[in-house]
Write a structure and sequence with these properties.
56% of the residues lie in helices and 0% in strands. It is mainly alpha-helical and 160 residues long. The chain has a single domain, classed as Four Helix Bundle (Hemerythrin (Met), subunit A). Helix 1 runs parallel beside helix 5, helix 3 runs parallel beside helix 4 and helix 3 runs antiparallel to helix 5. It is globular, with a radius of gyration of 17 Å. The N and C termini lie far apart (43 Å). This is DinB family protein. Pfam families: DinB_2. InterPro entries: DinB-like, DinB/YfiT-like.
Amino acid sequence: MSQDIKKATVSELTELIQKGNAHVSFEDAVADLAPNLRTEIPGDLPYSIWQLVEHIRITQKDIVDFSSSDNYKELKWPDEYWPEFVSEIDDDSWNASLDEIQKDRQRFFDLLNDESKDLFKKFEWGDGQTLFREAVLIADHNSYHTAEIVVIRRLLKAWK
């Protein structure tokens, strides 16, 4: 793959992960959320916005860790991917989770931009995954749960 094609592909993947293109970004979905709504669970839904944010953080970190090392330690599904319910979450914990999402996203972008990395070469570990596939997985997973955040905000009457 030429460097120009790789740069264009990485640019598209980065934009897809950051902005979502056809849907709201994660940052927009969590912006200006009243602290008391972070842990509210409307109706019969199984989780709160806080649980979704933490699930995004945990899963994205797991994907980045998997993509960057053959020393990866697999998490137990679903127990280690979903946080337990809590009745409230303080600003420090909320902001730390959002910061970690950004840091892990940047770690992944650094992998994508590493000129020594082939986007389509199968990892020596795993069962056929590539850096390209993991980028699409992050974009797909995060956009799915971002949409759920928006739905919960709408049910809580806390959306635009």
